[in-house]
Amino acid sequence: MTIDWETVTHVTKVDPAKDLPPDLTVLEGTDLILVGGSDGVTEANTLEAVREIDAYRPDVPVCQEPNSSTHVSTETIDAVDALAVAAVYNGDREHFVGKHVDLFTEIGRKPDEITGSSVPGVGGFVESKGVDVVSDLASKIFGEGYVVQNLESTAATRAGVETTYTPEQVAGAALATETFYGFPVFYVEYSGTYGGTRDVEAASRYIEETTLLYGGGIDSGEKASAVLDAGADAVVVGDCFHDDPETFRETIPDR
Ligand code: 1GP
Fold it and tell me: What's the domain of life for this entry (predicted)?
């Protein structure tokens, strides 16, 4: 399934290290699922969460958002519609460049597993097949330009974020995403706390083609509406989905 970003206004962030709500009907109305987290995530619990959610909502795209290449396998790639890979502008080098090269290096190795190209004598046939497999895998991946704005969050610690961006810098990162890096998504990340609308307003000035996501502390319809009204294309809701599923329903915009 390809992602039609034009139709996405509500994203659910599922942390595979946490339990899913017992009643998955709360997912009615969400437009896209991102499966990933900062703590306790493994390839196995990612796969389990992806499969459970995909079985319940086969009609919405389910994406893995890995924070390590060790959480990605040929099975997770097969199980998801896409892989969303964060590039953290205000993180350390590892989180803007290093992990991505690791991930693509890992993907470059997968054809050996899939095609058995390490077997001597199969030669060019497998080699060319291998290239196809690599480009198939790689085409499932999209980058997210990220700005992590809550220094207290695990996401900030993990990504080596030591300073937040000013609204002017957020706008600059948004402009760079749209015109220079070309990631399809720009993500204002306040993970765990509500950051208000200031950064979204700043970022939205420069974004036309890029999808602008806001995540962090959305636990009411009012906050979701405020962020969408400020220019976000979609809100991302994580904690509230796991901690208070009934309130989570209110974060899904009426259509
Ligand atoms: C986290 O942006 C998401 O990556 C959602 O944040 O968990 O605070 O809803 P919350």
Answer: Archaea
Relative to the CA of 241, which ligand 1 atom is closest? Answer: 9
Question: Is 86 a pocket residue for ligand 1 (Cβ < 6 Å)?
Answer: no
Amino acid making up residue 120: P
Q: Rounded distance, CA 39 to CA 57, Å? A: 25
Digit-coded pLDDT (tens) for 80-123: 999 999 999 999 999 999 999 988 887 787 666 655 544 444 44
Q: What is the pLDDT of residues 164-185, one digit of tens each?
A: 999 999 999 999 999 999 999 9
Q: In the CATH hierarchy, which fold is given to the domain comprising 5-250?
A: TIM Barrel (3.20.20)
Q: Taking the domains of the chain in order of start, what are their residue ranges?
A: 5-250
Supply the residue whose CA is at minimum distance from atom 3 of ligand 1.
Answer: 215
For residue 199, how far is its CA from the centre of ligand 1 (angstroms)? 15
CB 220 within 8 A of CB 200: no
Ligand 1 atom showing the smallest separation from residue 155 Cα: 4
Does ligand 1 lie within 6 Å of residue 36's CB atom? no
Q: Please name the residues in contact with 117: beta carbons below 8 A apart, sequence gap of 6 or more.
A: 111, 126, 127, 129, 130
